[in-house]
């Protein structure tokens, strides 16, 4: 957890701004009866891992942002966290899950109909933010990410006895591609060179693989078990991700990116011990 705190502290000011905007998004979004639904959802925020990836990647390239770049980054972070939220709301409907982040899911409290619509509203809000930005990067990258996430979810539902290769392709599509896109978008805002953009994109992809394999090992995911996937496979992706950012200049932001990697892999041991 210390590693996670260190990584988030490196971008604390920006993360607080993102959190503030998200906590008030229901006022801006929709009033009346639906307000309660959004308030309930945002009462229990996540870790802001994806906004952290955007901010740390950008600052690893360019520690001092212009005001315009900073505003651009904050807007990207808000949009990306809304898309992530929408995907979790829909994922819990698909998986029939009644608990997440220690509280009942929207489908558990308000039913599937309201939950589908709430996810759609957050999703629309996110793309409204991206569409209002000064460059098309956010919109272009995130529409491709969502397409890949949906395709991966369909594949997961269709091929319940898929091979190891299929398992890896599915987790790449449903989780890793999103994290990779966050790193890419942060790098683009910082005007990173081509090689740096690719390096951060690869780091994000490998971090995403670590994240989903760790989650699946902890949850006892059947596709992972069937394919003999263990935490050692996640460790292989940790090594790859470390190599990806080798060429990026040392800074607290780059350190933040490596801290995130270790936080994810170490969460396995701490959660297994607790269980
Ligand atoms: C979590 O997997 C699920 C995802 C990472 C992606 C879910 C994506 C969709 C439902 C499609 C995209 C939809 C929108 C609106 C963007 P999991 O069930 O293995 O993990 P969990 O333990 O967190 O539930
Ligand atoms: Mg799920």
UniProtKB/TrEMBL annotation:
Keyword hit for Phosphoprotein: no
Keywords per UniProt: Magnesium, Metal-binding, Transferase
InterPro entries named in the record: Isoprenoid_synthase_dom_sf (IPR008949), Polyprenyl_synt (IPR000092), Polyprenyl_synt_CS (IPR033749)
UniProt lineage: Bacteria, Bacillati, Bacillota, Clostridia, Eubacteriales
Listed GO biological process terms: isoprenoid biosynthetic process
Cofactor field: Mg(2+)
Molecular functions (GO terms): metal ion binding; prenyltransferase activity
Stated name of the protein: Polyprenyl synthetase family protein
Annotated family: Belongs to the FPP/GGPP synthase family.
Pfam families: polyprenyl_synt (PF00348)
Stretches that traverse the bilayer: none
């Amino acid at each position: 957890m210390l590693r996670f705190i260190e990584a988030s502290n490196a971008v604390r000011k920006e993360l607080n701004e993102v959190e503030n905007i998200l906590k008030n998004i229901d006022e801006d979004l929709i009033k009346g009866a639906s307000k309660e639904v959004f308030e309930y959802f945002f009462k229990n925020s996540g870790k802001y891992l994806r906004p952290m990836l955007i901010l740390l990647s950008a600052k690893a390239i360019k520690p001092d942002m212009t005001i315009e770049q900073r505003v651009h980054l904050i807007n990207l972070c808000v949009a990306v966290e809304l898309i992530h939220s929408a995907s979790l709301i829909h994922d819990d409907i698909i998986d029939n899950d009644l608990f997440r982040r220690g509280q009942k899911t929207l489908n558990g409290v308000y039913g599937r109909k309201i939950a589908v619509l709430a996810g759609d509203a957050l999703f629309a809000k996110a793309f409204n933010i991206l569409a209002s930005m000064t460059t098309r990067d956010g919109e272009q990258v995130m529409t491709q990410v969502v397409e890949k996430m949906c395709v991966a979810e369909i594949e997961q539902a269709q091929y319940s006895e898929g091979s190891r290769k299929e398992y890896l392709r599915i987790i790449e599509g449903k989780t890793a591609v999103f994290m990779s896109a966050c790193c890419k978008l942060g790098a683009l805002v910082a005007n990173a060179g081509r090689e740096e953009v690719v390096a951060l994109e690869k780091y994000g992809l490998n971090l995403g693989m670590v994240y989903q394999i760790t989650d699946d090992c902890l949850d006892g995911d059947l596709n992972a078990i069937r394919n003999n996937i263990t935490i050692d496979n996640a460790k292989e992706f940790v090594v790859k991700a470390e190599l990806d950012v080798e060429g990026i200049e040392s800074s607290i932001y780059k350190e933040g990116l490596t801290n995130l990697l270790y936080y994810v892999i170490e969460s396995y041991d701490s959660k297994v011990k607790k269980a």
